[in-house]
Amino acid sequence: MEAAKLRQVLEQIDGAGYKAYLRIKGVYEFPGYMLAIDHVQGDPYAAPSRLRVRVSQSEADYSASLFEGRVRRVALEDFIARAFARAVKKHVRGGGGTGKSGYVGVDSGGQEILERTAAVVNGDWVEVRFMVGLPADGRRCRARDAIRIFFDELPRVVAASVMSGAHDPDSVRQHVECAEDQEWLRGRLESLGLVAFLADGSVLPRLSGVSDQPLDSGRAVRFTAPPELRVSVELPNQGLVEGLGIPPGVTLVVGGGYHGKSTLLKGIERGVYNHIPGDGRERVVTRDDAVKIRAEDGRRVEQVDISPFIDNLPFGVDTRAFSTDNASGSTSQAANIIEALEAGCRLLVLDEDTSATNFMIRDELMQRLVPSEREPITPFIDQVRALYEEMGVSTILVMGGSGDYFEVADTVIAMEEYHPREVTAEARRIASRRRDRRLPEGKGSFHASLSRIPLPASIDPRRGRREKVSARGTDQLVFGRETIDLTAVEQLVDTSQTRAIGELIRHGLRRGCFDGASSLAKSLDCLLGDVAEWGLDIISPFSGPEFDPEKETAGAGAGRSGDGAGEAGTPHPGDYALPRRHEIAAALNRLRSLRVRPG
Fold this sequence. Notes:
With 599 residues, this protein is α+β, with helices and mostly antiparallel strands.
């Protein structure tokens, strides 16, 4: 339909009951772009209406080189979504009226560049998916304000964000190449003999405890690598960079309080994601299978083999398939490690501040008072070497309270006023002169079952007759009758990731990834294999149980140039962001209804 039809309907329903807005659902041709009104909210207080704008590449005119390959495409889509959000702030008046009246928003993300559904770019068109709170007076249409949004403000937003001519070409290229360099380096860390890299000049401190923005340059201490661990890397776009290269093995980060130990660790744990230019961490890269581990009192554990850390419990409790509805700090931390390994983790990241003390260490005095035969916990210090030497799993650990770890560390880094110093030899000399030493309590090897099979009947998104999946920030995921507590899953950075986790699990049930015969790891492979082939739109509720990707072409695979649903396309939501397999596994493992059987 022509845009004039939309104006005509809005003029007719001004002042009518709010449900009259349902009449505007449809697809409209505006000069230079198509507007699709896919879902109309039924109430001014309900979730905003879902809309899309689509611009042909003949109008948008982005160079194919900017979206060639997945990494570049994701970065360009991220850039466009952020530009759309900035344009909304500049051109949309907002406010006034009842409920969410006048709200216009897009899922543009934070400091990380994540694969999102908010914007889609291919060789044929550019599409942005966004939300609008249709204006109301009480529960009546305030359609005159809707006309202003659709015919005055939105055309300005589209012109300032979706069209390539609105952007400085260098800014677009820098955004894309910045992501490409990070992804390239992350993929080559192993061949470089590293598990993480932190470039000189990086800004690790954040603005505050509740803001992920970088601390302003006037107050921030820029990162500088110690000479002993300095590494030079030639990036595809930026060229030569130098910085701290952390080798595999056991790395200990020490130092006084408030000298930057945890800030360094936070930068490393977030290095599994690409960051936007100017974030300060855009050259801080960690291997993508790194998992932050912490104690998590009260979490449920379902048949996890925690025997490498906890064994010989009173009354003969079997820890090779341990379950509890209310785990202690040490038990939860042991389970978190084993579950991370099960999902494919090869780098553990720990901070003593968020760890259970009795899980991390038993000193020589406690060993004298409580003999090892009466202590079921094998401390992490006595298994960390076996984890690396037998399992190939490295560890980066912040430890400011126990020098016992000097003896098991391959690398020791001391933080002094936010500057790292390599002190491995010094730490070893101090450890060698010690007279009273604790006795190793390890079992000499690391053996754990890492193949549990989820039972699909225990993964149920239904609440009554309907399925219920929704996110409450990054801390909670509502899944059917359950509310999954994700507070301790610290590498989950975006509510849209949480939302996508719920839909990915639901998709896995529809798809048969959870079939009662496949291990958790294979189920995750199935889920993410679908996303890799067809894109994140495959989890859209619009796909439904009969979803056929060959026809709908919803993703990043071969059919991304069209979507088989006419020029308007399929109305997929724009508020999903791709999580890692480790956060999907973490959510499943914290689903209190989950049941498994041994693999």
